[in-house]
Amino acid sequence: VQLQASGGGLVQAGGSLRLSCAASGRTFSTMGWFRQAPGKEREFVAAIWSGGSTSHADSVKGRFTVSRDNAKNTVNLHMNSLKPEDTAVYYCGTRKNVAGQWDYWGQGTQVTVSS
Hints:
With about 120 residues, the chain is an all-beta fold. The chain contains no helices and 11 strands. Strand 7 (about 65-70) and strand 8 form a beta hairpin. The chain is globular and about 40 Å long. The termini are far apart.
């Protein structure tokens, strides 16, 4: 199983970015995104289940939207109204089950939001 993330970069506050993650090897019940800022623990950002249900962290609700393309086995994170505190390395993750531990991780992509 491999997860390949892309789409990070530098953007000004208020701007938008779109992250994508392509999974290979098998399909997954749950796909999602986490992030880790310097000096902080990795935190949950958003998840989407194979049926289309989603969950977003309170800190990104209304600004970020997770989506997936089951045919292409990809998960995306559309990020709008970015804030400096969104600066972090973003990791895509996948889970074989609907709940529980996350099984696989992508390599991480840097998102930097300047004020």
